[in-house]
Design a protein that fits this description.
Helix content: 10-25%
Strand order of the largest sheet: 1-2-7-6
Distance between the termini: 111 Å
Number of helices: 1
CATH architecture of one domain: Sandwich
CATH topology of one domain: Immunoglobulin-like
Radius of gyration: 29 Å
Order of helices and strands: HEEEEEEE
């Protein structure tokens, strides 16, 4: 039986595993976004993240979320499996108009970061009362002018 030798297959496999673990560490911040009444709720999964490392800020209309997950720091550890990504996570999103950006609140509970983003008062729908007069007037004539 003949075996074909391709030295690039193993190199490609190694680079693919390194790149996929780096890519998943950078983008591993899944989120849900929904509207509930007069505010939006943004939930992000950040299990194992140190709560003190979470940074949420808004500049202009860009919301930026950063968090850090560190690994076990003992130098005498011999890893048998290391599948959980570590490092800095970051996610940015552009927020639309009509939101009260100065009133955003954030909580971190059980590995989930929850942001409440209220709708601005001037962007909320409101009912406009329609009044109706007792007598209609002709266009171009005032009520005092005789017809």
């Amino acid at each position: 039986m003949a075996t074909r030798l391709d030295p690039f297959v193993d190199l490609d496999r190694l680079l693919g595993s390194v790149m996929s673990s780096t890519r998943s560490a950078a983008s591993s911040m899944p989120m849900d976004l929904f509207r509930s009444g007069d505010h939006y709720v943004l939930n992000l999964d950040l299990p194992g993240v140190d709560p003190g490392s979470i940074d949420v800020n808004v500049e202009d209309s860009t919301l930026t979320i950063r968090a850090q997950r560190s690994t076990h720091a003992d130098s005498d550890v011999q890893w048998l499996a290391k599948e959980r990504p570590s490092g800095t996570y970051a996610r940015q999103m552009t927020l639309g108009r009509g939101l009260a950006l100065d009133a955003i609140t954030a909580t971190y509970t059980d590995g989930v970061l929850s942001l409440s983003i209220p709708v601005a008062e001037d962007a909320k729908p409101r009912r406009i009362e329609v009044s109706h007069g007792s007598t209609p007037t002709a266009i171009g004539r005032s009520a005092e002018q005789p017809a």
